[in-house]
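Hi everyone, sorry if this is the wrong subforum. Our group has a chain we'd like a structural model of before ordering constructs, and none of us has done structure prediction before. Sequence below.
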Amino acid sequence: MFDPKKLLDDLLGSQIPGTSGTVRDKAGQAVQMAKDNPLAAGALAAVLLGTGAGREVTGAAVKLGGLAAIGGLAYKAYQNYKAGNAPEQAPAAGEPELLPPPKDTAFHPSQAPQGEDEFTLTLVRAMISAAKADGHVDDEERKKIAGKLSLSGIGTDAEKFLMAELESPLDLDTLVAGAHTDAQKLELYTASRLTIDPDTRAERGYLDLLAGRLGLPDALVDHVEATVSAAKVPVAKAGTSPNPRW
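Answer:
Right subforum, don't worry. Here is the predicted structure as tokens:
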């Protein structure tokens, strides 16, 4: 069995170490890197499952690890919302500080009533569902992903899990039911928003639908949007189209 937390850490990263582009921009280079250094291949799965929106999560979040980073972002958004602050539309100068959620709050991984691993898998499923929101991951794309995942070094069990999730139809009922507390509902939305930048109507529509099904107030969603945006920075892509899908 694979380690759900390790897989979530892999999915959170969005840039191939040592390059200035994503997997889709430099697929050949990424595959070669996976062959040469499987330990660096976690980012391979990340961008293959993402949407290539041209942004990556900052080092502050990556250093915490996927579970703590998602919890920290959700907690930060919730605290700002409860305090009645206006959502910040831009990050402060320098790398924004991100702390893990306090241990005595429902946002801390240890407080998950269903267990950390089970909720981690729910977050991974949420990220994959968000990545599929625009319909870009079709049969042809899945074949490409399968070929590259087999070279990524993430392990057979993790590879099978990812491909099964990619091939499964969207099931919002099951996904939403995987969040057992209000804090987990906010974390599930935060993980989904981390995965994509809603540049298309399909992506925006998916996030709006998810927020509605989770019962999140509009003002709280606005705080998540601002908090996640502040934790993501543009990725320079020399010589590429503004929209790599066109």
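For your construct planning: Residues 14-31, 33-47, 50-55, 235-246 have pLDDT under 50 and may be disordered. The longest helix spans residues 66-82.
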